[in-house]
Design brief:
heterodimer; A: 2 domains; 0% strand
Chain lengths: 277, 127
């Protein structure tokens, strides 16, 4: 009897402690990892200009519609009243167009200046083109301050054709240099990341994993290396714009940039997979 | 005639053991037989053995518990250490990779952030 009593007591005590210890471990198992997503940081000026640009573009669309209606009415009716209305609406639409272009070019300039990874000479050239176009736009806008008559409107409209080409060239030069710079920066960062990963985790996890990782690193290397000639080709096109100018260059390199983007996306996917091996 | 009441207390005290009832416990023990002595000894040995076994079981239980508890703690701590090591190595790379993926998403040439404004370059009064 004494033996059974002692046995039951000791068993009870042991099971009590073991059960308690399980509870303690269960409570202690709290692992939470927080991934912080860092969004693109836009400067206050860029944000303000973006809002201004949007509202000016909306206003331009409204005035452009009014201009089209007034112009149609003038051509249909041919009255002095319809001419006066058409001249007024044309002038307003032109002024609004200048505002849109001026804000757009200023926005592009700020974006260009805030973007890292662009060669300094390319950045300076693009900025100079933007500033020159901005100056011309402001001069054009000055002509629209005073009330104009039909011949003056026609003269300003003719002069604007040359200005439009210059504005487009400046804009596409900047868009191209920014698009190349963005992808080039990501490419460079991806190479650095891959190299760092290779140093840190290539040998971790035993021989079997090391071999698997080695193959994966080689494949990622191959993808990243195929992009170098692509970038060279894009930069060559950009440095030697044909007769179609930077607008033509931008159109020509857009497809190639798309391929580079896809390859970079694949390389980053590989790096993500490598981290899980 | 002798009365039951004894007025002389001194005499009573002296004779009182004579009046005590003789119980089994106080009865003089009979000499034990060899078989009985053996049985008693066996009982004693059994009690000692049972006590020892119980004691050993309790001690064993305590040792087992301590081993289990510290063992699992060590195991858990080594697992946590492994996880921490993984996090230390892989965590920053994941962060950098995530940043690069975000940048790549924004740099998609098919989704321009600032396309050239859709405006009419030929605004005029001419047809």
């Amino acid at each position: 009897m004494l033996f059974i009593k002692n046995l039951l007591l000791s068993l009870f005590l042991i099971s009590f402690f073991l059960f308690n210890s399980d509870l303690i471990y269960a409570q202690g198992d709290e692992a939470a990892s927080v991934i912080v997503y860092e969004k693109e940081s836009l400067s206050k000026d860029i944000l303000q200009l973006k809002l201004q640009y949007r509202s000016e573009l909306e206003e331009y669309r409204r005035l452009e519609n009014l201009y089209i209606i007034a112009k149609d009415q003038y051509h249909n009716l041919g009255t002095l009243a319809s001419l006066e209305d058409a001249v007024q609406k044309t002038q307003e639409a032109m002024d609004s167009r200048s505002k849109v272009l001026r804000t757009y070019l200023r926005l592009l300039r700020l974006k260009l200046l805030s973007q890292p990874g662009i060669e300094l000479p390319d950045k300076k050239d693009a900025e100079q083109s933007l500033l020159s176009a901005l100056q011309k736009i402001e001069q054009h806008q000055q002509q629209l301050v005073e009330p104009l008559d039909k011949p003056q409107i026609s003269e300003i409209s003719d002069n604007f054709e040359d200005l439009a080409v210059q504005v487009e060239e400046a804009a596409y030069q900047t868009l191209a240099v920014m698009a190349i710079g963005e992808l080039q920066t990501i490419h460079d960062k991806a190479i650095v990341l891959k190299d760092d990963m290779e140093v840190e985790i290539a040998t971790a996890g035993g021989a079997l994993k090391s071999t698997e990782r080695k193959r994966s690193f080689d494949e990622t290397d191959r993808v990243l290396n195929t992009l170098k000639p692509e970038f060279d080709a894009v930069e060559e096109k950009f440095s030697k714009p044909s007769t179609s100018g930077y607008k033509g260059v931008y159109g020509a390199i857009e497809d190639r940039l798309g391929l580079i983007h896809s390859a970079l996306s694949q390389a980053l996917t590989f790096l993500g997979e490598l981290l899980k091996i | 005639m002798k009365s039951d009441i004894m007025p002389d207390q001194t005499q009573f005290m002296a004779e009182s053991p004579l009046y005590e009832e003789v119980g089994l416990d106080n009865a003089p023990e009979k000499p034990l037989s060899e078989l009985e002595i053996k049985k008693r000894q066996q009982k004693k040995v059994m009690r000692i053995i049972i006590g020892l076994v119980t004691f050993l079981l309790v001690i064993g239980g305590i040792f087992a518990f301590i081993k289990f508890r510290y063992g699992s703690e060590e195991e858990a701590s080594s697992e946590i250490e492994e996880v921490k090591l993984d996090e230390v190595i892989v965590g920053p790379f994941n962060q950098r990779l995530l940043e690069l993926e975000n940048e790549l998403e924004l740099a998609d040439p098919n989704q321009e952030e600032l396309p050239f404004p859709p405006i009419d370059f030929e605004i005029s009064l001419e047809k």
